[in-house]
UniProtKB/TrEMBL annotation:
<dbReference type="InterPro" id="IPR013785">
    <property type="entry name" value="Aldolase_TIM"/>
</dbReference>
<keyword id="KW-0119">Carbohydrate metabolism</keyword>
<comment type="similarity">
    <text>Belongs to the KHG/KDPG aldolase family.</text>
</comment>
<dbReference type="InterPro" id="IPR000887">
    <property type="entry name" value="Aldlse_KDPG_KHG"/>
</dbReference>
<dbReference type="Pfam" id="PF01081">
    <property type="entry name" value="Aldolase"/>
</dbReference>
<comment type="pathway">
    <text>Carbohydrate acid metabolism.</text>
</comment>
<protein>
    <submittedName>
        <fullName>Bifunctional 4-hydroxy-2-oxoglutarate aldolase/2-dehydro-3-deoxy-phosphogluconate aldolase</fullName>
    </submittedName>
</protein>
<keyword id="KW-0456">Lyase</keyword>
<comment type="subunit">
    <text>Homotrimer.</text>
</comment>
Amino acid sequence: MHDALTVVKKTAPVMAVAQFTSLDHAKACAELFAEAAVPAVEITLRHPDAWQMVKLCKDLMPNALIGVGTVLNRRQMLRAVDEADFVISPGFSRELSMLAHKTLTTYIPGVATATEIMAAMAEEHRVFKMYPAAAIGGVALLKSLSGPFPDAVFCPTGGISEANYQEYLALPCVSCVGGSWIVPSEAALQKDRAGYLSMLKRLYQRGT
C-alpha cells in the first residue's frame, strides 16, 4: 500500500477525477488512460455502477493507482479497503481516518479550512484534498494556509481547468491537482480520441 504522499507525487501533475456516465464510458476511458500511461484515477462514487467501474479500471489499467472518491461513510470506506488503491473524501471524518489507520488504507481527506486541517493533522494526516478549491479561495487560500501549515501537502480539486491548473502547481504546497477536464465525455472520445491521447501523453511525459 502506497502512502498518501507517494500517491500524489506519482499522480502529478493532474489526478484524473472521473465521473463516468456508464460502464462503456468507463471502459473507453480506461483503455485511453492505459495507452497514455495515466498514473492514477479517482473514480467518484456518484454512479450506481461506480464499484464495477473501479474493478474495470483496475483490470484495464494494471500499472496505475485506482482510487475511490466521494467516500462519505464507514460502509464505503470498508469496501474501498478491498477494492481500491486509495480513498479520497470531500471532507474530513475522524471515523474514516480511524478506519484508514486501522486497515492501513491510504486515505486523503478533504479540507476547506484551517480548523479542518488542524483536526486532520491531529490524526496524523499531512496530505489533503482541498475542496472545492476554486469556490473557497483557490490559489490565494492555499498561499495563506501554507504559512501556518508548512508541512501540509495539497491536491486542490474543484473548479480547476486546463486554463488555471498551472497557477496551482506553481505553489510549493501543491503536489498535484484534481481535474475532470482530462476525462473526456463519451461524445468527445468518439469525436477526437487521438486528440485526447496526444494531450494526455504530453501532460504526463512533460510533468507539468
